[in-house]
Design goal:
Oligomer: single chain
Largest sheet: 5 strands, antiparallel
Helix content: 25-40%
Number of domains: 2
Distance between the termini: 24 Å
Shape: elongated
Length: about 150
């Protein structure tokens, strides 16, 4: 995956997958405010380059979670446990963040039927994962593309 190495007023240096450094004019970048470290895709149109931001590896949902190159979602465990699961768990937000859209919709529609037991159980499980066990020494949770916990 290509990455922007240096940004100047007139040109941008990009390191590509082959270990080469490509220098392109700033006008070749088709998104605003390119920064060092941005993951990009490089397209060649004859002699010219077209650079677009790689959205598969950039932060998603306004910084709530990030998607890495394996497709795993990484979420700050404190935000996930205290905000998403505790306060918004009854609306299924924790399941939506994990990528479990179907369970999120079910939880949104039917958590009232369980009289709050389902959100409470999810919160207790998230607490035990966050502050005890395999995830206790990290600052983030990792979920696979199916929404399962990844150690």
């Amino acid at each position: 995956m290509a990455e922007i190495l240096k940004v100047t007023a007139k040109e941008i240096k990009i390191g590509d997958d082959n270990g080469e450094v490509i220098t392109v004019p700033r006008k070749s970048v088709n998104y605003s405010d390119p920064k060092e470290g941005d993951k990009v895709k490089i397209f060649k149109d004859g002699k010219n380059y077209i650079i677009s931001k790689d959205t598969t590896s950039s932060a998603s949902m306004n910084g709530i979670y990030e998607v890495d190159d394996k497709g795993y979602k990484r979420i700050n465990k404190h935000l996930f446990v205290w905000l998403a699961t505790f306060f918004l768990g009854g609306f299924g937000v924790d399941r939506f963040l994990r990528g479990q859209i179907g369970l999120g919709v079910c939880k949104l529609l039917f958590s009232w039927v369980t009289l709050g037991i389902w959100p409470l159980v999810d919160w207790i499980v998230a607490l035990s994962k966050a502050y005890g066990g395999a995830f206790s020494n990290t600052e983030e949770f990792t979920f696979d593309d199916m929404g399962n916990w990844v150690e």
